[in-house]
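Fold it.
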Amino acid sequence: MAVETTDRPVEAQHIAAVRAFNRRYTRIIGVLQGEMLGTEYSLTEGRILFELAHFGATEVVDLRLALDLDPGYLSRILARFEERGLVARRRSDADGRRQVVELTEPSARGLGVGSALVGECLRFATAAGYTEMVLWTNSVLKAARHVYQRAGFELVESNPHHSFGVDLVGQTWRRGLGGEDDPAR
């Protein structure tokens, strides 16, 4: 099975290899242990908050698939978030058998998780000797774009595409690494 991109199809085995790489190295650098980057959240919890902050209300099953999480694990995390007042769950209007989850208030979006994740990625890539980092996002994700801009990334390419049932504009952001004045050093 291949996933269609604007340039060429990406084989499922390649996607699986990238995910395996990400899981392995997040374990190696220790970000899977609790309290990611000085916050009270684990990497997985940070990823969930980041997705909800940037995509808004999302069906739980879509969130689980997007993050490749075990259903029970995601359910336990969402229950903890709900107890703390960070998220609210409700039945989907489109399919009453499904749940929708969303952040409870705009202030929950300012937790700094996105900036912390990007900062840690920059530090890791610089320490590993990478000379450049490339990020891809959609133009509608304004908060993500602001995080990238604040971290020194520059928009280098925009391409329209159709995903998630809507027309979107994909964006490629680049940033050089390792210079003397690089804050990621």
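The chain has three domains: 1-30, 38-108, 113-176.
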